[in-house]
Write a structure and sequence with these properties.
Largest sheet: 7 strands, mixed
Order of helices and strands: HEHEHEHEEHEHEHEHEHHEHHHEEEE
CATH architecture of the largest domain: 3-Layer(aba) Sandwich
Strand order of the largest sheet: 7-6-8-9-10-13-14
Structural class: alpha/beta
Radius of gyration: 25 Å
Helix content: 40-55%
Number of helices: 13
Distance between the termini: 115 Å
CATH topology of the largest domain: Rossmann fold
CATH superfamily of the largest domain: Response regulator
Strand content: 15-25%
């Protein structure tokens, strides 16, 4: 007796479909969902240039990671940059965080300015979403107990400490010609905090602070500030401000022939290749303690060529944002998931080494990488050199600067 039932048309169609899939096994595996990273940068407003540079660096890293096959431990998941614009305003930065949260963001990168990063990271903390700080100097960013915030680079506390050591060594090597300084800073958390730290530390290397001058953002005219400085006759002018005001102040000091041993800055927002390219006479001999790439590293040199080949400038914002994305990608690879809790745990235990920077090993303490360090830089009319510390230096410092003619 034949107990087999005739096959229905539906079963035949299902079997055919299964056979077709088995013939193309790649179709069995759905492509993993992209990992959305919210890029919260000021690409309009007064900080637009620096924000644009930050975005460029982040997208360079995202493209590089995706071209190499994505996050391997997550089945090749690609990173997707969600582009935000804080418009150089803290409240807009917060609204961008909220918008991206609704779009399913897994992590944030930002915000260039400390004044934007502080409220933006607080907003992200409500959702326990990892927030990678690319540029943002204030140590308040990592001193508030927020478990979701990670900063690979040093803040202004360590940068000021190291800058004081570097300045002290260079000044001592020049028979301590610099004995007095005037500090000029912008009014927000970045400039105010940096100036306060400098004022407290400069006497330790024998430099007296004659006056501290605060200015608004934006400031269109520094003539009166330059005249005030000229009257005080300091040996050094130390500046802490963003791109536009930094360049304008430096140019005004030169035009007013304010003759000093050094125009110096810590985390100077306008000390970059843009200054050298557009204002070579102003840039020459200026010194800045800042984030910089390792000039002796082959990959860093290749990245600079890559950016310049496209008509861009290899400013610190580019590689700080690049490194922050690479740090997150390494955490995802180790976690094997974009789950926020697990990603935060992976970031906190990270030992990822940013080879293109003059850093030590990565070790996070309360979200701050203890291995980050800056470098003392000096500009010529055509380039910027590392002049301290010695193991990364590409040139010797010119200090004091030659007298103005």
């Amino acid at each position: 007796m034949n107990t087999h039932r005739p096959l229905s048309r539906r079963l035949i169609l299902q079997a055919g479909a299964a056979s077709a899939v088995l013939g193309a096994p790649g179709l069995l595996l759905a492509q993993p969902a992209p990992v959305k990273v919210g890029l919260v940068h000021p690409v309009s407003g007064g900080l637009a240039y620096s924000g644009g540079q930050s975005r460029m660096g982040a997208m360079m890293a995202i493209d590089e990671i995706n071209a190499a096959g994505g996050i391997k431990s997550m089945g090749g998941a690609k990173l997707q940059g969600l582009l935000g614009d804080s418009q150089s305003r803290p409240e807009i930065g917060v609204s961008e965080v909220e918008r991206m949260q609704q779009e399913g963001v897994s992590a944030y990168l930002g915000c260039f300015a400390s004044g934007i990063a502080l409220p933006a990271t607080q907003a992200a903390a409500k959702y326990n979403t990892p927030f990678l700080i690319d540029v943002g100097a204030s140590d308040l960013i990592v001193n508030r107990g927020l478990k979701n915030v990670f900063r690979l680079k040093p803040g202004f506390g360590k940068c000021v400490d190291d800058a004081i050591v570097a300045l002290g060594e260079i000044n001592k090597g020049a028979n301590s010609v610099a004995k007095t300084a005037v500090l000029v800073h912008e009014e927000s958390e970045f400039g105010t905090g940096t100036a306060k730290l400098l004022a407290g530390k400069l006497p330790s290397v024998g430099i007296e602070v004659l006056e501290t001058i605060k200015h608004a953002n934006p400031t269109r005219d520094f003539s009166n500030v330059a005249l005030r400085i000229k009257g005080l006759k300091p040996d050094i002018v130390i500046m802490s401000n963003y791109q536009n005001e930094y360049v304008l102040l430096a140019r005004t000091l030169m035009q007013q022939k304010v003759d000093v041993a050094a125009m110096f800055s810590v985390l100077g927002g306008g000390f970059n290749f843009k200054l050298v390219k557009e204002q070579p006479d102003v840039a020459q001999y200026m010194m800045d303690f800042n984030h910089w790439y390792n000039p002796k590293n082959a990959k860093a040199a290749a990245m600079r060529k890559q950016v310049e080949a496209k008509g861009g400038l290899f400013t610190f914002e580019v590689y700080l944002s690049y490194n922050a994305i690479m740090l997150y990608a390494d955490a995802l690879q180790r976690a094997g998931t974009a789950d926020k809790e697990k990603a935060i745990a992976a970031l906190a235990s990270s030992t990822w080494f940013p080879e293109i920077m003059p850093y030590g090993p990565t070790r996070f303490v309360n979200g701050q990488n203890e291995g980050g360090r800056g470098a003392l830089l000096q500009a010529s009319k055509t380039d910027i050199d590392v002049v301290w510390p010695g193991e990364f230096a590409s040139a010797k410092p010119t200090f004091p600067r030659p007298k103005m003619s």
